[in-house]
Structure formats: C-alpha cells, structure tokens
Specification:
Layout lengths: L10 H7 L4 H13 L4 E5 L5 H8 L3 E6 L2 H7 L8 E3 L12 E7 L2 H19 E10 L6 H6 L17 H10 L11
Parallel strand pairs: 1-2, 1-4, 2-3, 4-5
Length: 185
C-alpha cells in the first residue's frame, strides 16, 4: 500500500478523528495504578487529550506527535512542553525512561518497516518491567468481514497495514516483548 502524503494530516483530519475515549483512558490509568507506574509516553498523541487526562490524574506524561497541525491544536489543552514533535520511529528519549508507552491507533499508519523501527525504539525507552499499550484495528474482526468496504479502518486513507492478534503478538515477541495480552481477540 502506498504511504499517504502529509496533506492527509490536516486540521480537518484531527477534528474528525481525534476523539477522547474515557474507557480507554480509565483502562490505562488502572493499569498504571495497579502496577505502580508513574511515567507515560503517548506516541502519536494527536492533540494530546490522553496526555492531559493522565497528567491531571497525577502521572508524569509526555506526548510525541509528527503532525505540526496536531501539535498546534494541542496547545489549547496542554501546557508547554508536554507535547513534542517527534516520530514514532525515532524517539528522542534516553534508554529506560518511561514505565509505559501508549500508542493508540498509530501502528496501522506506519507500514511494516515503520512498525519495526517503532518497536525497537519503544523497547529501548521503556524501563525494565514496563509496558507497551497498543490499540490498532483487528484484521480478524468479524466487522471487517461483514462491513467489507465500509469497515471503519478502511475509511482512513492513511492506514497502510493491519494486524491480527497473532501477527502482532509475533511481531512484539521478535522485539523482546513478553507477557502479551489482547482484548477483543
């Protein structure tokens, strides 16, 4: 699949797709509390809504985003420096910096080589005993089969690659991630 041009990541793109899922935020917060985690990196944070939510709950958070438009929009809700311009494939942080890395609806945009680079970077900046929390469309979803061309993941022209739980699990294992768990298999 051809990589989309940067024109797709406009203000309109983020207004349509950058919503805040409170249930997802609560799940991440619970995971952090249950495991005594304090620092979070949100990779591909969009306008930074999760970054703000987690910071307001007392966690040390930072987001990175490649889109200038999303970063500009994030300034309305986030304090200066909490969202930085950075690519998922080249994270500007020291080794073992974060207890958890979240990347919600990002890996389907990166393509195969981009995901490989991202997982290398994620493994590098996650502290020992830390977590990676990923959300991505499930290629095995019965909704994909039922809805065919109308499946939600096909509606975003910037999606370049999809995963099944099995293929993503194998990919994570290649890069040294263990104890892999899925919801909505």
């Amino acid at each position: 699949m051809k990589k989309p041009s940067k024109k797709y990541y406009s203000k309109d793109y983020y207004l349509k797709r950058d919503y805040f899922d409170l249930h997802l935020a609560y799940a991440i917060r619970s995971l952090m509390q249950e495991n005594n985690l304090s620092s979070l990196l949100d990779v591909g944070c969009g306008t930074g809504k999760l970054v703000k939510y987690m910071r307001d709950k007392g966690f040390k958070t930072i987001g990175c985003e490649i889109s200038n438009e999303a970063i500009k929009m994030s300034r309305k809700i986030n304090k200066r420096g909490s969202i930085i311009k950075a690519s998922a494939t080249s994270l500007p942080f020291k080794n073992n910096t974060f207890d958890i890395i979240c990347s919600i609806s990002v890996i389907e945009h990166l393509g195969k080589s981009g995901v490989n680079k991202f997982l290398i970077e994620a493994k590098r900046v996650i502290a020992p005993g830390g977590f990676i929390f990923l959300v991505t469309p499930n290629w095995n979803s019965p909704f994909r089969i039922i809805q065919q061309k109308k499946w939600f993941a096909y509606q975003d022209p910037t999606h370049t690659h999809y995963y099944t739980p099995k293929s993503l699990s194998k990919k994570l294992q290649i890069y040294g991630f263990t104890n892999i768990k899925f919801q909505f298999k």
